[in-house]
Design brief:
The structure holds 3 protein chains of 3 kinds. In chain B, about 35% of the residues lie in helices and about 25% in strands. Chain B is α+β, with helices and mostly antiparallel strands. In chain B, helix 5 runs antiparallel to helix 8 and helix 10 runs antiparallel to helix 11. Chain C has 19 helices and 28 strands. In chain C, strand 23 and strand 24 form a beta hairpin.
Chain lengths: ~170, ~290, ~750
């Protein structure tokens, strides 16, 4: 067993809340968020950046939190699934997943929803193949992706309807 | 998580000079750590033997894409996302943009860096064949020195690279083509599926066509040898010739002899060899089209 | 009366928690004083355990260490039989077999400790293939390496060959497939001589775990309690294996006196837990000049791995489905599940049927080719019809119209036009396109007398506020149990779904509804829920406190009044086997299933002949499944199943070395991403099944059966490749294509 390195303090903002996390520098951000910040909506599916269940946003970019050492979260703004809905209002993408069958077992859902929101922020009117590419890093074993794609399309449509001026 | 996390050190130097200083005073123990998309996978699997790392991720000196009249300088920490979204790269270096877009997933592209990909030296990486076709050069810096090395000379064997223990990759330089529209370019990654795949064969090629002849031709391959490499013998056969069926057959033979694919858990040597030949045919078809 | 709620896409009951990240899965739960556990496994496929070394440098006294000697009761994970130990004692029979358990509060230190234990094995020769096991190269299980065998006989096969105009033979294989639920397996246990054993976990069948822990601890039934937490996918993979993890976590908790959490990482989950059984099927078929099936001889073998586990039951379903939805007067099916020194193979959606259906549907396309009929026409001439008998002598009593399903499927995908167009276009194309199909059936519920033996129960209770609670041992793992049960109860009681609550599956609170497997939850357990709801309603109506055509408010008031006068308002229903369903276990004949789902699936593919890569471009799934209770959930089941079938057909390849899976990472075991899946177009024909709740039959497993053969047949059409084995990886297909075009 090698000599342990010391813990460090990581200052970051998580879902709008300033946090100081005491942890090992190489600890996975995934574990730190789940165990210290008690944000268990971020899931571990593979631990190797392959499944996307642990996807979060760091400074607006989608990343897999299993591949980010805690030290690299210093000074960042993080959003997890818990930071997506407001008090009593689901985000449009969450609502669409709920209504259109985008979630089955629910374990890929947090990462999938963040990937979809992140895609729509960059590209509000994606084509079918752009949606498929945007979500290709998030593996789902239940849905065959069909209802997930439908949910994203529906969320776009609803968002567009909401912003159009009423006649 | 199969590693004993408390035994790993990761420190963030405040700037490049500080990072190089640390590597100069204690050469060896400190290894660079960029976006983490490769090293964290090894850590998870309990296969990261090295214990002390310098986090480079926040070093501004290693970021950014600079364009001058005759070259493009890509900072080592440029992410795949930055590469695929960059207009000049997409226009003049489409193979690199394409490789970046086919690497991992969006989340990986947001975090993974070109310099990290080069330093990791995986024979299955997607960008190196494109960099070889573009005759990239690497700027390697230490606290005392700075040198430029042709990317072709970077490897000496499987995961063996010409980076001294006190050196970092600072930038990657690509010469801008003076006559971009005379070049026909081809890239195809044959992976295990359409996205999020590790390549089984990666084929990048470009030819400058002059009066229906290949005045210049460059072919670089991934996943078919211990390192990514330029198929020099095959290039020699093609040089100055027209892409005819007879030439294709000869070149396919040479190419098959020039690569050294293996059987592994992702594919077979036989498949890799045959597919490499077929992709050469596809490249030829594109030249003749 | 028109249903109000059945047939509508009520949103998923627990959906809000899932889209907000609030749903609590086992790894999201923590108890005070909880420590972490892990399993040290066999490095060798077979041999005697000589020694266990504990390297220095680890503070061993701080660890809880459990070996076989610490087991308070019998060292077995009880399932059908007791051949599988919870911890190997002296001898190992497969790689990664659990040998020793460790627990410690520090997860990181626990990993250091795992590496510091070395299990020394004196190796014995192992058996790793079906052929070697059948040849009895080594006897590794019982007297003959055979866990179970079946024989089905209909008519007189031996006499039929002489009158056949054609006899077509073929051998087919399917590979192991990992369930690859995205939530890895995990359990938390609390245990002690005083309080007994309590287990929380990601699991499909709480009562299976309950049954397994009884002999292990030698405790009475009421001292063992199993609670299902939110489960991130199962697909069969969490049918039997959670009993093993529960045994381990409970043993560590028993010894340490602390709650113990064991969560597998992906690497462990891949190498150690069950997969779909690899299979080999040999067909010999006699056909008349006009394309009528005359005789079918089918030899079906599945590889069960090192212990029996569920292999006999998987074999049973695979055997019964092996002759498909066709009428043939003479059939013989001989089947067996054999032992190899691999981790036991187990339940995976479809449960033996995807293996034997793949073989049959490929074989029929080959027969069609040999006798000069179109694949379609061969099927049409042999489709089973009402009143005819299946291979197991079951007379089909339900309305069945496979030709109609085929018509509809072919129309939706323009089958005939495409088939013709592709044949023409392929002549000069590097990317060749093809279209293929499979027609098939899938029996819902346990096989034969299984449901009768299970004698499942479900209950329903109404509170004085009119809240309705459903108590069932059936689990929600994404497939929609909670929502479907709510719909059934709400429809029956004339209420809204919001008024229905589904009790968390907890063996201390819910009755044994049988396992959540075999496409049985909606059809069998849903019916028990419906019957219980009807009984409660009848009590209210009979009491005079409620009159028919009531409003929800009147219902609520009546509940309060009823409970005030008569006490608790509840009903428990036990499964009654229909008296006209008979099964003969000795002769393996009779009514194998109460109902079947029927389907025709069509796949359109493109094959890049330069790389031998296949992509599925379009997929049409037409099926008759009785009444559809929730269209979005039902379509979701089919779409998800088709995607798993695409993986089974093209991508998912377990690479084995001496019984060990060596590509046990998601990077190297390839499941489809959103870019690998085509539009999946799902259509239901609905013929209400009188014994199902609101007319519903089972659908969960169906899509796994027909997807792979439809794709294989499409590839054959595109390229002429004679596909005999799945997965059809590019490496395999390249070799076939080169042999075709030499």
């Amino acid at each position: 067993m090698s000599e342990p390195a010391g813990k460090i303090s990581v200052h970051c903002t998580v879902n709008g809340r300033a946090l100081i996390l005491e942890t090992y520098p190489m600890a996975r951000l995934l574990d730190v968020l789940r165990e210290q910040a008690r944000l268990t909506g971020t899931k571990e599916g593979c631990g190797e950046g392959e499944c996307g269940a642990c996807a979060i946003e760091i400074d607006g970019a989608l990343v897999n939190s299993c591949l980010v050492p805690a030290l690299q979260a210093e000074g960042t703004k993080i959003r997890t699934i818990e930071g997506v809905a407001t008090e009593n209002q689901l985000h449009g993408v969450q609502q669409a997943f709920l209504t259109h069958g985008g979630a089955q077992c629910g374990i890929c859902t947090p990462g999938m929803i963040l990937a979809a929101i992140n895609l729509l922020a960059r590209n509000p009117h994606p084509t079918d193949s752009e949606i498929r590419e945007g979500l290709a890093g998030n593996l789902c074993r239940c849905t065959g992706y069909t209802k997930i794609l439908a949910s994203v399309v529906e969320a776009c449509r609803a968002a567009q309807q909401a912003t159009e001026p009423r006649p | 998580m199969r590693s004993y996390i408390p035994s790993y050190e990761l420190v963030a130097p405040r700037d490049l000079a500080a990072a190089l200083q640390k590597m100069a005073t204690e050469p060896g123990p400190w290894k660079p750590f960029a976006g983490g998309t490769d090293l964290m996978v090894l850590l998870e699997a309990g296969k990261l033997p090295h214990r002390k790392f310098l986090s480079l991720y926040n070093l501004r000196e290693l970021r950014g894409i600079e364009i001058t009249h005759d070259q493009v300088m890509i900072g080592a920490l440029t992410t795949y996302t930055e590469i695929r979204r960059h207009e000049t790269l997409a226009r003049e270096f489409p193979l690199l943009a394409r490789a970046a877009a086919e690497t991992g997933s969006i989340a990986t592209q947001n975090r993974g860096t070109l310099g990290g990909n080069v330093a990791n030296a995986s024979p299955a990486a997607d960008s190196p064949p494109a960099l070889l076709v573009y005759e990239a050069e690497l700027e390697l810096v230490s606290s005392a020195t700075s040198r430029w090395l042709p990317y072709r000379a970077f490897w000496s064997g499987y995961k063996q690279i010409a980076l001294r223990p006190d050196e970092l990759i600072r930038r990657i330089r690509l010469p801008r083509p003076s006559n971009a529209n005379h070049w026909r370019q081809y890239y195809r990654k044959v992976g295990t599926r359409r996205a999020q795949a590790i390549s089984k064969v990666c084929f990048a090629a470009a030819a400058r066509i002059d009066f229906q002849r290949m005045a210049e031709v460059r072919i670089a391959l991934g996943s078919v040898a211990p390192t990514v490499f330029r198929a020099a013998e095959t290039e020699r056969i093609l040089q100055g010739e027209s892409p005819t069926p007879a030439l294709l057959r000869a070149a396919q033979e040479t190419l098959a002899a020039e690569i050294a694919p293996i059987d592994d858990i992702r594919s077979t040597a036989r498949y890799r060899r045959r597919i490499t030949q077929h992709l050469l045919a596809e490249f030829f078809a594109m030249l003749s089209a | 009366m028109e249903p109000r709620i059945i047939g509508t896409s009520v949103p998923r009951k627990e959906g809000r928690d899932k889209v907000t990240g609030a749903a609590r899965y086992v790894d999201d739960i923590s108890f005070p004083g909880m420590i972490h556990g892990l399993t040290v496994r066999s490095p060798a496929p077979r041999g005697r355990i000589v020694n266990m070394h504990f390297d220095s440098g680890i503070p061993w006294p701080d660890f809880t260490i459990v070996t076989a000697k610490d087991i308070p009761g019998k060292n077995c994970v009880m399932l059908l039989i007791d051949d599988q130990p919870a911890l190997a004692d002296g001898f190992v029979n497969h790689p990664e077999e659990p040998v020793l358990l460790l627990a410690h509060p520090d997860k990181y230190l626990l990993e250091e400790a795992r590496r510091a234990v070395r299990i020394e094995i004196e190796p014995s020769a192992g058996v790793f293939t079906i052929a070697d096991s059948l040849a009895r190269r080594e006897i590794i299980w019982g007297l003959d390496n055979i866990f179970k065998s079946f024989r089905v006989e209909k008519g007189d096969v031996d006499s039929a060959w002489s009158s056949a105009a054609f006899i077509v033979e073929g051998e087919y294989e399917t590979g192991a497939q990992e369930q690859l639920y995205i939530e890895p397996q995990g359990i938390i246990a609390q245990a002690g001589p005083a309080e007994g054993v309590t287990v929380w976990g990601s699991l499909q069948c709480p009562y299976y775990v309950h049954k397994a822990l009884l002999p292990l601890f030698g405790l009475p039934k009421d001292r063992i309690r199993i609670v299902q937490t939110e489960t991130g996918g199962g697909f069969g993979g969490k049918e039997e294996y959670p009993s093993m993890i529960a045994a381990h976590a409970a043993l560590l908790a028993w010894k340490s006196g602390k709650p113990v959490k064991m969560i597998y990482d992906r690497a462990e989950d891949m190498v150690a837990t069950t997969k779909r059984h690899p299979s080999r099927t040999i067909h010999r078929t006699g056909v008349t000049r006009d394309g009528k099936l005359l005789a079918m001889e089918i030899d079906f073998t599945i590889d069960g791995g090192a212990y029996q586990t569920l292999s006999p039951v998987v074999l049973s379903r695979g055997t019964i489905h092996a002759a498909g939805p066709y009428e043939c007067p003479n059939v013989r099916i001989k089947s067996r599940a054999i032992a190899t020194n691999a981790p036991p193979h187990g339940a995976f959606r479809g449960f033996g049927a995807p293996q034997s259906v793949f073989a049959l549907e490929r074989h029929l396309d080959r027969i069609a080719h040999v006798i000069g009929l179109s694949p379609e026409e061969l099927r049409r001439r042999n489709f089973i019809r009402k009143g005819q008998t299946l291979a197991v002598h079951q007379v089909v009593r339900e309305q069945v119209d496979l030709a109609g399903l085929m018509d509809r499927a072919f129309e939706l995908c323009e089958y005939h036009a495409k088939r013709e167009r592709f044949t023409h276009e392929n002549l000069h194309a590097f990317v060749k396109r093809g279209i293929g199909f499979a027609s098939f059936l899938h029996g819902a519920g346990f096989t034969g007398s299984g449901e009768e033996y299970l004698a499942s129960e479900a209950a329903l209770e109404v509170t004085c506020e009119g809240r309705v609670r459903v108590f069932a041992g059936s689990t929600e793992m994404g497939q929609g149990t909670n929502t479907v049960f709510s719909q059934i109860a709400a429809e029956t009681l004339g209420l809204g779904c919001d008024q229905i609550e589904i009790a968390q599956p907890d063996t201390a609170r819910v009755p044994n509804s049988g396992p959540t497997v075999a496409s049985r939850t909606t059809m069998i357990v849903g019916k028990l829920v419906e019957t219980s709801a009807r009984a409660v309603q009848k009590s209210l109506l009979d009491s005079g406190l409620l009159k028919s055509n009531y409003t929800p408010a009147e219902f609520n008031a009546a509940c309060a009044a009823y409970i005030n006068v008569h006490g608790p308002l509840q009903s428990l229903t036990k499964y009654q086997h229909p008296c006209d369903l008979h099964w003969d276990d000795e002769r393996y004949q009779g009514d194998a299933y109460g109902a079947y789902a029927w389907a025709v699936y069509v796949a359109e593919v493109s094959v890049d002949t330069r790389t031998a890569e296949v992509h599925v471009d379009d997929f049409v799934a037409v099926q008759e499944v009785g009444k559809v209770i929730n269209p979005i959930l039902a379509a979701g089941q089919i779409e998800g199943g088709v995607a798993q079938g695409i993986g089974f057909a093209l991508y998912e390849n377990c690479v084995w070395q001496q019984g060990r899976m060596i590509n046990g990472q998601m990077t190297n075991y390839i499941m489809p991403t959103s870019m690998d899946i085509p539009p999946i177009r799902v259509f239901f024909e609905e013929i209400p099944y009188e014994r199902g709740p609101a007319g519903a039959k089972g659908i969960g497993e169906l899509p796994l059966d027909g997807t792979a053969p439809a794709i294989a047949n499409a590839i054959a059409q595109a390229t002429g490749a004679d596909i005999r084995r799945i997965p059809i990886t590019p490496e395999v297909l390249l070799e076939i294509l080169e042999s075709v075009h030499v």
